[in-house]
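Review form for a predicted model. The reviewer records the input and the model, then writes brief findings.
Reviewer: anonymous (R2)
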Amino acid sequence: MSLIFINHPLETFTPTASGALATILWECCRVAQRQGLSPAVITRSSTISRFSWQNTTVLDYPEPPSGGPMLTVLRLQRKVTGWNHLCHKAYAIRVAAAVRALPEAPLVLINDPEMTIFLRRQFPQRRIVHWFENQQECRPRVQRQYASAASVTLGVSNFTSEWVKQYYAVGVVPTLYNGVDTDQFCPAGALPDPPIINFVGRTGIEKAPDLLLKAALSIAKTNRKFSVQLVGSNHWDRFELDTYQRELGELVAQLESRGISVMRPGHVGRKDLPCQFRKASIHVVPSRWDEPFGLTTVEGMASGLAVVASNTGGTPEVVGNAGALFERDSVDGLAGALLPLVENRTERAKMGSMARVRSLEFTWDRTWNELRGHAGV
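Model under review:
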C-alpha cells in the first residue's frame, strides 16, 4: 500500500453507476498497480457491482431518520458544526475507524473539506492531501478551519486552484490535472459523414445539453446533413422526468420534425463509453457552469473528435489551441463554431487530429506520479 484514497461520501465506486470521482480513483489505482503499488480505497457501499480493486474498504452510509427529534438534532448539528449533509459526521466516524484498521499511509481526499478537518483532528501527524475536483463551497466555519487541516491542497485546473486559494485562504495550491486513457479512448479511423454531433454527460441544466439542441436547430435552418447523439441521463443510475428533461424532449422533437436524427442511448458505463465516442464526428461540451476539468472534454479529444466547448472554468486549459471555444450560454456562438465543422469534412478531421495530439499531454501516469509526489510516497 502507498496511500489511502477516501472517496466522497455521496459517491460510490462502480464502473456503471458512479460519477467522475470513481473513475479518477480507479485510473490512479491502475497506474499504481503497474508500478507495484496498491493504494487503499475507502468508499461508500453500493448495490451495484464496484470496481474490482481488492484493496477496498466498503462502508455503509448511515441512514438518516425520516422524522422525529433525531432528525432535528442532525439538522442542528449540521448547521452549528458545518457538516455538509445529514449523517456526514456519523459517516466520518466510520471512515476514521477504517483508516485506523489499515497500515499507516498518507490520506487523499477529494471534494470533502469537512472530512479533511475531522480526520486532521483524529490523525494529527498524518499527511493529508485534499484534491479539489470542483469549486467546493462550504459553511463559514469549515471555510475558516480548512487551511490548517490539509497538508497539501490541490486543484484540478489552474482555474480551480486560483478559486480555492481565494475562497479558503490557502497560500499555495498546485494544479493536478486529470488524465485520459488514450488506448481506450482513441480514434475510430474514418469519421462518420454526414457528421454526428456528440454530447456526453449528465443531462442536467448546468451541463447545458439544451444549448447543443438549440444550436442544432439553428444550423438546421441552412444545413440538415448531420445528426445528434446525447449520451447520458440526469442521474448516473436512473432517469427521472422533470421540467428540464421535458424541455430537452421538446427540443429533440423539434429537431426530428426537421429531419435531424437524435440518438439518446441514456447513461453508458465506463466500459462502453469509448465506443460511443467513436460513433461521433464532433464533440461538444456546452457547460454553462464553470467546468473545472471535464473528463468528457479530454475523452472526446483523445477519440480524435473535433471539440467545441464553452469558455468556462478550466476548459480552455484542457482544449488549448486544439479546439473551438464559445462564450457561456451563447446559442449563436455554439452554432457559429459548429457550422463550419458540419459543412467541412477536412476541417473536422484537422481539428480532430489536433485534439488527439493535445490529449496525449493528459495521461493518468502523469496524474498519479504527481499525486505520489504531493503525498510524499
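Findings: The two ends are 10 Å apart (CA to CA).
Further findings: Residues 11 and 18 are 7 Å apart (CA to CA).
Recommendation: see findings above.
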